[in-house]
What does this fold into?
Amino acid sequence: MNSKPNSRSRVIITLLLTVVFLIGVTSCQKKGTWTVEEQQLIETYSNQIMPLCVVDETNDSLFLRKECQSLSHEDVKDSLFVKLKQQMLLTVNNPENEGVGIAAPQVGISRRLVAVQRFDKEGTPFELYINPTFVYLSDEKREGWEGCLSVPGKQGKVERSSWLVISYNDEKTFEIHNDTVKGFTAVIFQHEVDHLNGILYTDRSSELKIK
It folds into this structure.
């Protein structure tokens, strides 16, 4: 028996190897538009509290001023999104540094995703919102004190709309949903969506004080 494959066999083997290679490459490709840096950061802190970007650090401060990129439906279907959600909730509920809302850029991910504690709902649950935008902001305003996980040690008075209509993508269907929000929860939404546009509450504050 000839131990060397004939020309036809070599062609078949080459094709098979090519198919196996392509399958391997495809299986390793990430879904959506997640960057390598985002993937590494999310994977590094899987099921953990994530480090916060704070204005006291120069690189963090510059990062917080960036306008965030929208999430696609493919991004949301990726396992990275599930991990990011869990980690944002762990971070904002950190017993040593609790908040009432958090935006993805505060944990180093420049994407349009926020978590808001719904004080207007029974049990005051945290809910996450994909690509949130305001359909309407009331002309009626209220001024109140605000703080921020990314601006440690300070508080500031900020004037915000008393109620609003927010639009966002549904996680499962990616359809657009609207929600009318009032009171303190509306303030949280405005604070967190500002983060997605590179705006800090200190930019809007009429008065700042050290805690």
Notes: The two ends are 86 Å apart (CA to CA). The chain is about 35% helix and 30% strand.
